[in-house]
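Hi D.,

Good news: the full-assembly prediction came through. Inputs first.
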Amino acid sequence: MSTETLTDIAVRTEDVWKIYAQEPEDVEAVRGVSLEVRAGEFMTMAGPSGSGKTTLLNMLGGLTRPTRGRIWVGDLEITTLSSKELARLRLESIGFVFQAFNLLPVLSALENAEFSLLLRGVPAEERHRRVRALFAEIGLEGLEDRKPGKLSGGQQQRVAVARAVVGEPTLVLADEPTANLDSHTSDALLDIMERLNREHGTTFLFSTHDPRVVERARRRVSLVDGQIASDERG
Amino acid sequence: MRRTPILLRLATRGVLREARRSLLTASAMALGLALLMFTRSLADGGHEDWINAGVRMGSGHVVFQRPGFRESRSLDDRLSGHQTRAAVAALARLEGPLAPLYTTVRLTTNGLASSASSALPVVIEGVDPETEVAFSQAAQRLTEGRYLEPGDRLGAYVGQGVAERLGLSLGSRFVLTAQSAEGDIQGQLVRVVGVFRTGLPEVDEGLVHIPISTARSWLGVGDAATTVGAILRTSRVVPDAVQAVRSDVAEDDIRVLGWREAYPQLDAALRIDDYGDYVFLGILFAIVALAVLNTVLMAVLHRKREFAVLQALGLTPAETGLVVFTEGVLLTALAGVVGMVAGVVLTWVFFRNGLDFSAFMSEEMTFGGIVIDPVIVPDFRFVQVLQSLFSIVVVGTVASIYPAYHATRIDVGEALKFE
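Then the structure:
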């Protein structure tokens, strides 16, 4: 029995499976994963391509529904939520950082970063204050009005990180966030995320096979063939 | 509701982002709307011309007759003097847009026209020369001589075919023979004062106008008439005018007909032409719908990842669909404004005086019992502009529903996969 209270848990899964119906036979992308991630953890899920990292991450973020099993974010079981409730959960509790940055091309850097605050109805002045402070913290000052197409890969990913954390979510799910970045930019980005984790207590859960990311994590889970192969701390 | 401005902003930028594609689609739709306005104006104008020609060839937009006259064409089915006056008075009481431009009283019967060389069955119309000259198309299609004048007692205005077949020329005398009110066969000597040619053989070879006073005294009908008719400003007011005079002249043995009932052949011809227009409009609407559907659906398919990101950030599937739907509506609205301006320019600025189709027509083209004027003047009305705009907006909006639905069904996890 876990000694943590439910509120200490950022995310928890119980025998989660994801099976994709496919010919000639179904694909079991995630097979019976049970996992607990405590609030404030800086953790990686590593594994080769096809090990189920991204699928598990998407299920934790409510983007994909598991075939069976249960998932909680905080003390809320998300596997029974409607699409609308999941959208609300993502807005209020989860931040995403994607491998391909996935900034909205029609919005400026500032508009991208403030998007979740905008959806939450935070007044413009407050939104801008928070985004500008975050931009100053992560070295994006002066780039507020640039569209994603006018930013470098590293700058785009930093905007994506700002977008993920500006709403102070319980959990940030980052899917291969450094895969498209050079080593220098990757290190700089990891510095930022580590600092946000340390100073703001934001929980970071990375799906990655980048050794630099794995090296920095304080907890390392490895996935093989959709199952947890190891779980190391420290 | 709180998120409406955000969704609107996303949709607006989505449209502007693919400016070239949006512009091409909007242009196709705008062109469709402009063509719709132009063709509808032209069709309405053409139809109004045909109706006008038809009612002037006949007895007007609104016709008073005794029940049975249309079938019997007999003096037995004539309006009494009292009924005739009541009908004229009822027409005179129509006001505003219903007020008649011209009113006519006619005594019409079938008879025989005989000259020294030949004889011909004809329709004899006793008319009031003063009112008929502005009313009747035959009166306006003079080729020789002049139309009847108030002083003419024995004058006859004949179709060219009648003149040719009877060997008549201006000043020639011939005899009209018909059954009088008493049932006797009576003859009336008349003299040709004018010849007309409408282009319709059945009219040119079979119609003779004589003064109604002459016809009345010859046929012994007193101040009776067979028909009272009126030309109105436009055929669109005919139903209202008919309803007004019907309630005004509430006599059982007077029948009030609108032009559709009075000229069923013309009505049928116009309906057939309308069906052709509907097919054309259907094709036009389908093109517009497909243009919108294609553009918006392509946008959804190309931007699956973007819509998935929106949902990952907290937009609901329904809101994502709403963004796509709004893009379609914005595109349609943009096209609507541009198309409306283009339609007005095309119809009003370039062709307000009419479009001459004479190069595509034989010299005298007849259709539905009328001669078609090769110059068609578009009937340009504000309400029609609004109807066209509304139609295009509805089509564009409906065509945006499927792509919007598609956007709500995106598999977010799948769409976010890095490729």
